[in-house]
Structure of DNA gyrase subunit A:
Amino acid sequence: MSDATDLPEAENTGQASQGSAAGGNGDGSRLIPLPIEDELKSSYLTYAMSVIVSRALPDVRDGLKPSQRRILVAMNDLNLTPGAARVKCAKICGDTSGNYHPHGESVIYPTLVRMAQEWNMRYVLIDKQGNFGSIAGLPPAAMRYTEARLSPYAAMMLEDLDLDTVDFVPTYDERRLEPTVLPSKFPNLLVNGATGIAVGMSTEIPPHNLTEICDALIALIDDPEITIDELMEIVPGPDFPTGGIICGRRGIRQGYLTGHGTIVIRARAVIEEYRDNRYRIIIKEIPFQQQRDKIEERIAELVTEGKIPGIANIRNESDLKEPVRIVLELKREADPEIVLNQLYEYSPLQQTYSINLLALVDGKPRLLNFKELLQEFVRHRVTVIRRKTQHLLSKARQRKHTVEGLLLALANIDEVIRVIRTSETQAQAKERLMAIPCPAAMLARALGEEGFAQFQKERGIAEEYFLTPVQADAILRMTLGHLVNLEQEKLVSEHRNLLENIKEYNRILSDEKNILEIIKQELTEIKDKYGDPRRTEISDQEVGAFNIEELIPDEMMVVSISSAGYIKRTPVSAYRAQRRGGKGLKGARVDDEDPIEHVFLAGTHDYLLFFTNLGRVHWRKVYELPELPRDAKGRAIVNLLSLQPDEKVAACRPVRDFSLPDHYLLFATARGLVKKTALSAYGRPVRGGIIAIKLREGDELVGAVVTKKGDEVLLATEKGMAIRFRESDVRPMGRAAAGVKGISLIGDDRVVGLVVAEPDACLLTVCAHGYGKRTPIGASTAGPVADEEIEKPEDETEATASDEEVPEEETSVEEPEADESEEAEEGEVGSQFYYRTQRRGGKGIRDIKTDARNGPVVGVAVVHEDDEILMMTAKGKTQRLRVSEIRLVGRNTKGVRLMTLDEGDTVVAVKRIPAEPGNSADNRE
């Protein structure tokens, strides 16, 4: 943007004269240079958040948008309770617009109308009178012709609003205060649902049955650990005001578990034989948010177009008693079942409803599951009841204090009257009243034994007591009528009741369980008074169910995760094989602040288990990950997984089938611990993840492999040590166990790799500086281990001198791309065993030399002759290499150059590419 100096002289002079008044840059100019990108971003975000928070999304506590809440508050101000006379909707809309809502009454009336339509609201919040539209699609009458008042459900939502139960904020003109949320004894969001479209997000919360929701809330209070599947035994699914049939339960369960789901709703239709071999289809209920007349028109169009040729006549027999009754008479030769299926397929009689449980939680949009919706309502009601009780307790204590002063005055009325009569001013009378001593005995007679004991507990034990300023003011305001005996008895009774109320309030506030009991009692009363039968039927028959995996080819994918949490998948075919020692291909766009941290291969049909640094595990299908080009940065993983603020992915593992018998997930941590848990224990996805392993302080997860009976595993450390032991040496444990020692580490060494030791395969070890080696694993050399030894503490097996000090043999390397100075050592290639089996918990044997040339070990992989490997560096470069090009060498060697690195770059991961790219079912690294 140009500044003022670029303008013509006359124009510039005129503008400069206004520069100081307009703010400007301080040089007389009124133009402020501002990047348009920043201004658009700031303005759009402000607009978006305003729409999200102030207009489009409901609050999770009362289930209302601001416009709906303001209408109910305005009606409450007008005392339009369920027992009051209805008033014109024009009056309601005018008061709402003038007092609370700044967007005009033209948008208020449609909102009010919808809250009164029983085909849109499962439990209407507005008790209407007049034409408010119909399920046929007819519009409502103008607001000057209709009347309304609050329904009993809305009255429950406004109950206790004046008892300091919720926060209030100034209205748009700052003349009044409006509540930020309603106390909402009635679970409005859960039973009436909500629909809203904001900027970049939308919500679609279905309505439910009040009886079922009350039972589910009570069950949640009784058992906070109840699962969503157990809640679904109480609430099987949505209950729409228009009835209908929900086809299948899978979409409901998915929506309740994840917050996102899709269900299919069908109209309720029956087939009747009204003549010999003549049938008709009677439609009695239609899908939610569909209009009866438009459905009838669409069916007529389908008959005209010839898509449903079996219908002979369409007749609308709907009336006030039966709002939906569409009769379809069929031709004699028509099969009624086929015609009905055609109606479901082509007409609005079958609709897809998207569940999107998005609501404002603490002022921010949040996707919730079904249990979290229930928890948020209970949390809100706990807060409301606590604040209400605290308010009543404060009022009761203030009144008790005043009543005590009045009783004290009545007990010594002669002296009180004398002091007042002889005082010249009220201020003097107040001071003299406060100076009158009241003997403890007189006060005890006035307050009673229990009241005087409570008084002494608050004021302390003394021979005489004096009035407080508040009590003196109350005495001065006391009329002569209070001197009669009947009034004295009323004060004594009131004091006694106040003591009981204060005791009850303190009991409620002493334990949250008491508040929860009140909530349960309220829910039981609501259910008994307003509960009704379910309208929507849930069928076990799935409609249009298909397996999405059948449309997705099963191919190997390279999945990478950066340090900052960006993830992507790329077909393995995008990485062409290169010769050993090359510099690799450009991979993900990364910088020094966000290096690649995890790389692995998995089939598109595999489940991907994400193990986090907090010891939890999350699920995703590989095909659900974003597929991006090789050089793309990726997408933020927080958009895929429900990670906690301080949670990040530590390891990943592809799994094809969780139900394999006698299969286990075996974990290894950086501090050398291992843990084995049945694979089936991880086969049930839960939003937010489940516990995978209990990590000790300072430890982290390194890897996880799937093992079966008879397998052996191999741990590799950063300083080049390795240990091989049988998986049966690790007893099966629960998901929350911490594990047992797998290898004894020396100094600051740490475990970097875990693989299943295949006797006919080789172990590829790769170091940070691009060097590595391939050594045969060999057959098991361990003898049988007694079963009872598994439960005993394991002895630490020291590495033998021969294992530690294998002499090196230098061999020349005839690779044209390698450096001339590069040396490759070939050790005991002719030996029978290279990695002997040891007992778990030993120090292991030397695997590779980790000197200044090699750097520390970054990873290991089990490879076969026909396989390929994929290496990735911290700066995003990738190298795909044939295993056959890597020479077989012994254990205690330095290896050869596998990849030439740029200055400052290091290898961060190595992964095996099987010879058959589609075969990932064995889950081998």
User: Anything to note?
Assistant: The first helix runs from residue 9 to 16. The longest strand covers residues 268-275.
